[in-house]
Amino acid sequence: MGVATVTELKQSISGKRTFRPTSLISCHANEWPPTDVSSDLTVEVGTSSFALHKFPLVSRSGKIRRLVAESKDAKLARLSLHGTPGGAPAFELAAKFCYGVHVEVTVANVATLRCAAHYLQMTEDFSDKNLELRAESFLRDAVLPSITSSVAVLRSCEALLPAAEDANLVSRLIAAIAANVCKEQLASGLSAKLDHHHHHHQGQLRPAAAFAAELDGGSPGGGGDWWGKSVAGLGLDFFQRLLSAVKAKGLKQETVTRILINYAQTSLHGLMARDVHGGGGGGKCADAEAVKRQRAVVEAIVGLLPAQSKRSPVPMAFLSGLLKTAMAVSASSICRADLEKRIGMQLDQAILEDILIAAGAGHGQQQQPQNGLYDTDVVARVFAVFLNLDDDSEEDGGGFDCCYDDSPRSPKQSLLVKAAKLLDSYLAEVALDSNILPSKFISLAELLPDHARLVTDGLYRAVDIFLKVHPNIKEAERYRLCKAIDCQRLTPDACSHAAQNERLPVQMAVQVLYFEQLRLRSAIQAGGGGSMGGGHDTALFFGCAAAAASASSAQNMRSGSGVGSGAMSPRDNYASVRRENRELKLEVARMRMRLTDLEKDHVSMKRELVRVGPANRLLRGFARSLGRLFRMRPAAEPGLQQLGAKATADAKVLFQRRRRHSIS
């Protein structure tokens, strides 16, 4: 009945394709398992057993032939093949192939068949058109030319390790994907250039779909069939190897970034920090495993990011999410430092939500409310990176040294202004936390240079909120915090509020009023020359007798001559302008002397405050300063003396009637 003994098999083991059980195969080509011939060999694979025959298996499998020939039992009836890649289903497909049953090779099973053929040694050395050749033909013709098919087969190889590595299947698939991706990118870039050239000659705009296709590295508008989305289903090891290969081949950084974002969204889904800390004691092991996987994913993604650059294509929101997740899962310090540096280099793209990072977010760490709800140390390091950026970097065309100044049009200054607004918003947010340490808040307020803020209203608002939430801080800390505010850069509304804000130190209120008076004097003095009726009153208010005389003479010259100003001769007009210019220069010199006296008085008032003198003594000193400001220079103007006395009285009333206000 076509059954061979072990002795016969041993005698012909050295020959090639010795056994051809054609009768058995032809009779049962469409029947599985065969039933009309009694089984003489039971093969065990895992928990499954297969009652088969020696002839079909030995004729195509070199491993089974060797095991049968090396057996000491002449009537071997049971064989164990527990190491078959793919388990019982894979062996069943290989056994069917040995019996001549038609086995369809597909993308889903080609990796299993190839690994099983390699394990069972179903090569051309033992039979023509064996299973290994069949699987290799399908891989060469249908899988390797296609990116999507190659990724699908690569994903199926994860369950076949290490057999897939032994068969050299993983390396070939990764190399084929990398080569095809770069070919696709080159073709897409060429077609985009041709399309742009065509539309340029026709005077048309380039379609938006072309830009989307270029961004996706060849995908049609970033549709659902983009190969990068299928990569997100790979395991971490295969994903790292594949992305390293495509980066080495020259894949665009924009495409690499999109792949990383898709992979992070898929792999980190459901493993966010809020889920890590949840669950009862029975789920601690599961949580620990989830956190371990998430930590490995985050560190791998950070290692695969494009090179650090101010113009990196990685979105700020993605970097911020990675940093928050890295802190939540206690990623390595190298990983967190890399993310902090990247965020600092792209800080001009950040918004408030990007830098609001919860404190004590590491897995297994207890949050410490006494230290605040937010991790201000991370934000301080991020801003430190931003401030220490190399301005003469090559990628920025020589840096900002050639155009660096404090004007708003300076590139460096514009970035500083944006960073200052972001920091002020962050300070206003963390100021609401009653547990934040004053020292940390003060260090953040003092972090940026003075020229970073064109207007200090944002910082004043944050400080006011902090003082309102923390009414019991030390006076030294209160004074140092308010010292960070440049009163000269407060808007009039903020100055008005600060002058009546009882939460501020008295020194700051005096400073605000002082600079506000200087601002008003400069504004009125600058606009006094163009006013007709108000020029004399303005000059009297500031004690500018020469300016008043100049304004009066100019008014008399224009109205008393009976001729319009437009009818004046050029010579008379030039002489009048020169005379007024000389008088104004003299008045400016006098005002500078008065300012010097006021500054000396201001310093003396500070010294009196340090000695903790009574409040009325301070008020008297301030009133004396205001009286000196409004003091009449010629003794022959009693009306101006009355005006100065009235200003002194108004200043006293202002300090006596200060009300408590808040803009928070």
UniProtKB/TrEMBL annotation:
Entries under PROSITE patterns matching the protein: NPH3
Name this polypeptide is given: NPH3 domain-containing protein
InterPro entries according to UniProt: NPH3/RPT2-like, NPH3_dom, SKP1/BTB/POZ_sf
Family: Belongs to the NPH3 family.
NPH3 domain span: 225-519
Coiled coil: 574-608
Keyword Iron-sulfur carried by entry: no
Pathway it works in: Protein modification; protein ubiquitination
Keywords: Coiled coil, Ubl conjugation pathway
